[in-house]
Amino acid sequence: MSLTPDQECALIAAAEEGVRHAYTEHQSPDDFRIGAAVLAEKGHIFSSGQYRSDSGSLTLHAEQCALAYASAHGEYGIVALAVTWNEKAASKSEGESIYPCHMCKQLL
């Protein structure tokens, strides 16, 4: 299944919404924020931001949250994934794109 231009735009917009809803250390819009969205086989889009834990090891990445959200709604086949971030996260990537980490790739 390939993405239509409308699906691609909707997927990116949902990932951007995930950035806004990310749970961060200070809950400031300027905190490091990542958002992700998945397009499921049935055509539904599920998005989320990361969920930061004070312990660090219990932090959930945005990709993990979006996949869990889809699964919680009975959607297990994933067609596409979009990941986006805010300015603070972009500054840490040194101009490079941000890709899912190896842990998230394994989950995918």
Automatic annotation (TrEMBL):
Location of the CMP/dCMP-type deaminase domain: 6-108
Gene Ontology cellular-component terms listed: cytosol
GO biological process, one term: pyrimidine-containing compound metabolic process
Superkingdom as given in the UniProt entry: Bacteria
Keyword S-adenosyl-L-methionine attached: no
PROSITE patterns reported for this sequence: CYT_DCMP_DEAMINASES_1, CYT_DCMP_DEAMINASES_2
Keyword Flavoprotein appears in the UniProt entry: no
Key words of the record: Hydrolase, Metal-binding, Zinc
One Gene Ontology MF term: cytidine deaminase activity
Entry-linked CDD domains: cytidine_deaminase (cd01283)
Pfam families documented for this protein: dCMP_cyt_deam_1
Similarity section: Belongs to the cytidine and deoxycytidylate deaminase family.
Name the record gives this protein: Cytidine deaminase
Organism name: Candidatus Uhrbacteria bacterium GW2011_GWF2_46_218
